[in-house]
Amino acid sequence: MAEKIQLLTHNSAAEYYFQEGCYITELLNQSEDHDVSIAKARLTPGTQTRWHKVHHSTERYVIIHGFGRVELGEDYSAEVGPMDVVVIPPGVPQRIINICETDLTFLAICSPRFEHTNYEDTVEANR
Fold first, then answer.
1. Cα torsion for 83, 5, 41, 53, to the nearest 10°?
2. What is the pLDDT of residue 16?
3. Distance CA 68, CA 30 (A)
4. Mean pLDDT for the stretch of residues 33-56
5. Using only C-alpha atoms, what is the Rg of the chain?
């Protein structure tokens, strides 16, 4: 059986504010494609995402524009910039902080695909 060929065009008007503290545009997240989801995330200057976990998916941040600091668990912190890739295993507490004067934009690529029911704010959010 032939695979279905698709072209999904970018719709900047589809951006929405997500509870984790950033703006999201879903580029690919379809129930019939369980293997992967791709979202563009945007943090405005001086903002950060809430501490959270994504269960059941490995998440990859691919930094497109700007600079940030990613914090994973209690012991890992690193500055990131364009074309850096951060691989976050399922269930690891995480947040990212915009440390520059422009928007921080990155792709969040999850496998299997991101589902809102797998998102969890963590106790670290109260730090």
1. -100
2. 95
3. 29
4. 96
5. 15
How many Å apart are CA 107 and CA 87, to the nearest integer?
12
pLDDT in the model for residue 89: 97
- CA-based end-to-end distance of the chain: 52
Mean pLDDT, the chain, rounded, equals 92
Question: From the centroid of its chain, how far is CA 23?
Answer: 10
Sign for the pseudo-dihedral over CA of 69, 98, 117, 113: negative
Q: Which of 40, 104, 39, 96 is nearest to 67 (CA)?
A: 104
- 95, 121 in Cβ contact below 8 A? no
